[in-house]
Amino acid sequence: MEDKTDKINDTPNESATEAPDVSAPDSHTELAQLTDKWKRALADAENARKRADLAQLDGRKHGVAMAVEALAPAYDDICMAIEAAKASSESDNPLIAAHLAGLNSAKSAFDAGLKALGVRTIAPENTPFDPVLHEAMQMQETDETTPGQVLVLHRLGFALGKRLIRPAHVTVSARPTTASD
Q1: Geometric angle at alpha carbon 60, from 59 and 65, rounded to 5°
Q2: CB atoms within 10 A of CB 171
Q3: 111-161 confidence digits (pLDDT tens)
């Protein structure tokens, strides 16, 4: 008796040798697709990292702005105390001079801290009024300057980069009114 299994296995499969299996993916196409997916995933990861870095930087700037806003009234008080001590009739008194030195030291420390944080002060005396950076507290008629100039700085403003933390309070020059006006 013949072994029937040998004949089945020995017979070549004609359909396999005639046409390739269309269901098997082309290795080059598959490699190109996987490479494209990998590049897209890499780009997405890089974009996510950049967004996270920008969010962290923005959060830092927001925190600095909030801290400066909270501490600005103390800075204003130090500046007013310095001006009051300088204008005092007893400014020659050693006690007043010692207080003035301490106030100047505190103001210098505050200024150094602002500079270290990247905060710039807005002190616009003798410059044109800028409604983005300045808040006009009053108008003063004068012939001495052109209208729209900052005459008096009442309170410093603060900015961090392009972010305005607090506008400067100023007095702005105005054209004098005449009897014909």
Answers
A1: 95
A2: 19
A3: 999 999 999 999 988 899 999 999 999 999 988 888 999 999 999 999 998
